[in-house]
Design brief:
This protein is α/β, with parallel strands linked by helices. Helices cover 36% and strands 24% of the residues. The strands form four sheets. Strands 6-5-4-9-12-14-15 form a seven-stranded parallel sheet, sandwiched between helices. Strand 14 (231-234), helix 10 (244-247) and strand 15 (251-254) form a beta-alpha-beta unit. The protein is elongated, with a radius of gyration of 19 Å. The two termini are 37 Å apart.
């Protein structure tokens, strides 16, 4: 394989998986780690990827807007594993809040297929609400507000006002970016504000996020790592992430 062709394939692989380690790429393309490092340096010089300790990640804009249909097909196995772990924290009779993130949507499917009974589900997601519409064992409340057409959710001042009158036992939310210093972040002010309102209403708030969300800062902070949620559930450890700053600030759960 010619160098240009290999670098193109490396870039495509990183774009698909959001990040990759030097060792991973060396094995995948059957070349030395020295060669991979040179490839990554060239790709970074071309402003195509970002080098990290031990590998590289996709180049992103901190103001990127996300669409549900694009996110739902990204890291499906990791989201399923994270949702399975989150399901373990839900008990019969719980009052829970589910936001409209794709990982939370996966959790909703698992809840629907589970043996859990007598749940009170509160949600800002129209998709989640429709999923439970025929489940006679669950009480479902849809929070009102302004429609976010990209994510099929509601948010805004009216949504936040309603949340201020509620208390739920457990809330499960997704997030766009996680950074040890900046905190949990999203691209839009209304989304960040909605997530703050959700966590404030919960006795225990769980952030569910796969490894591709780490070491990223988006436009607006939702809350600090140690300032809003109680738990951070993610998939198994990645060689590209130093988890120690997070473990010092929040209960980190590896699925």
């Amino acid at each position: 394989m010619f160098t240009d062709e290999r670098q193109e394939k490396i870039e495509q692989y990183i774009l698909k998986n959001d990040s990759a380690s030097v060792q991973e790429l060396s094995t995948l393309f059957s070349v030395s780690e020295v060669t991979i490092r040179k490839d990554l340096e060239e790709l970074q010089k071309g402003n195509r990827i970002v080098r990290t300790h031990g590998g590289a990640r996709v180049k992103y804009s901190n103001s990127s807007l996300f669409y549900f249909q694009d996110l739902v097909v990204k890291c499906p196995e990791e989201k399923h594993i994270i949702a399975q772990k989150a399901l373990e924290f839900i008990e019969d009779g719980d009052t829970i809040f589910l936001d409209g993130s794709t990982t939370t949507n996966e959790l909703a499917f698992l809840i629907q297929d589970s043996d859990l009974k007598e749940l009170k589900v509160i949600t800002s997601s129209l998709s989640v609400a429709m999923l439970f519409q025929e489940n006679e064992s669950y009480s479902v409340m849809v929070i009102g507000g302004s429609l976010n057409k990209r994510m099929n959710t509601v948010e805004g001042a009216f949504m936040e006002l309603q949340m201020s009158y509620l208390t739920v036992e457990k809330a499960f939310i997704g997030i766009n970016g996680i950074d040890a210093e900046f905190g949990f972040s999203t691209s839009e002010v209304t989304e960040a504000s909605a997530k703050r309102a959700i966590c404030r209403s919960a006795n225990r708030c769980f952030v569910m996020a796969d490894h591709t969300k780490f070491n990223k800062r988006y436009f607006i902070k939702a809350f600090d790592i140690d300032g809003g949620a109680d738990y951070l559930i993610t998939n198994d450890r990645s060689d590209l992430i130093d988890y120690s700053p997070y473990e010092e600030k929040i209960s980190l759960i590896l699925a």
